[in-house]
Recover the amino acids of this structure.
């Protein structure tokens, strides 16, 4: 029976799961290889690398971001994506499902688009997408490279955006030769926002230029932190190089530019598809691709 509007006692509290903990009840999750979970008791966070029997019980082995491996009893006591989870052993059925999903994934590009079999790259369009630096370009290539080759779109690097207006003037975009630009840390009140506002107003090119950005200090942050065994990207104190600070937090070598380059390769290597990136970057890159390919026939 529904409670009347004047029923000051409300619905029957016993009709709901009133004993449920605030974090919600634990749900079963298959401990497939690569699944990232956290042991709720110790805080150990890592990816599943194996499930085996040991000492008369089933044990799940988790590898953390530093390459250390630790075993835990399979069952309750874990967190998956911040929620309580009961890890269960993979079954032949779940393994087959994982293989089927992998085969399906193989038919799609890293961006989630359907792969085009036997397609050769188009002759490059006159249109271009510019990104701020090498790491941005490498991340776009890894996730959207197949799509860009099908569309004939070339991605080029800028050395920052301080001279963005001059870049636009030099490129001189037209309706048939459009320009898309991806800007790091494009948030209100920043130097980048002022530069972009000026560049967007340039005549006669403003209708043929699309400038978008993501809110991250660096494109590294567009990688979901769970891919590195983190719950969130850390805050780096002022005065500390952001990338060096991130690598130090991860426990990786961080003193030199070579360390930074190697660290980025490890981060980039953790990206398998668009699902490993934050939506704030995904939407902006898709917007640029759509803009520079407008009017392109199949």
């Amino acid at each position: 029976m529904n409670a009347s509007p004047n029923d000051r006692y409300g619905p029957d509290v016993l009709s709901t799961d009133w004993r449920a903990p605030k974090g919600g009840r634990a749900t079963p999750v298959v401990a497939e290889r690569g699944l990232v979970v956290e042991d709720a008791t110790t805080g150990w966070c890592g990816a599943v690398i194996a499930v085996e029997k040991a000492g008369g019980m089933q044990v799940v082995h988790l590898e953390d971001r530093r390459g250390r491996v630790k075993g835990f009893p399979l069952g309750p006591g874990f967190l998956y994506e911040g929620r309580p989870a009961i890890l269960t052993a993979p079954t032949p059925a779940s393994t087959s499902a994982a293989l089927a999903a992998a085969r399906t994934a193989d038919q799609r590009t890293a961006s989630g688009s359907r792969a085009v079999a036997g397609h050769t790259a188009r002759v490059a369009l006159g249109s271009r997408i510019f990104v701020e630096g090498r790491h941005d370009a490498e991340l776009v290539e890894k996730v959207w490279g197949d799509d860009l080759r099908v569309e004939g779109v070339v991605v080029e690097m800028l050395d920052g955006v301080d001279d963005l207006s001059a870049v636009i003037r030099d490129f001189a975009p037209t309706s048939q030769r459009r320009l898309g630009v991806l800007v790091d840390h494009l948030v209100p009140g920043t130097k980048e926002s002022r530069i972009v506002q000026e560049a967007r107003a340039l005549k006669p090119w403003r209708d043929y230029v699309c400038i978008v950005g993501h809110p991250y200090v660096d494109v590294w942050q567009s990688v979901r932190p769970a891919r590195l065994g983190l719950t969130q990207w850390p805050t780096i104190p002022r005065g500390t190089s952001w990338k060096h600070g991130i690598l130090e937090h991860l426990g990786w070598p961080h003193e030199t530019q070579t360390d930074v380059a190697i660290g980025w390769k490890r981060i980039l290597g953790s990206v398998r598809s668009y699902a490993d990136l934050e939506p704030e970057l995904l939407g902006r890159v898709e917007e640029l691709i759509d803009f520079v390919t407008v009017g392109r026939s199949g």
Remarks:
- The chain has a mean pLDDT of 82.
- The radius of gyration is 24 Å.
- The helical segments are 92-106, 134-151, 164-171, 191-200, 242-250, 257-269, 279-292.
- Residues 134-151 form the longest helix (18 residues).
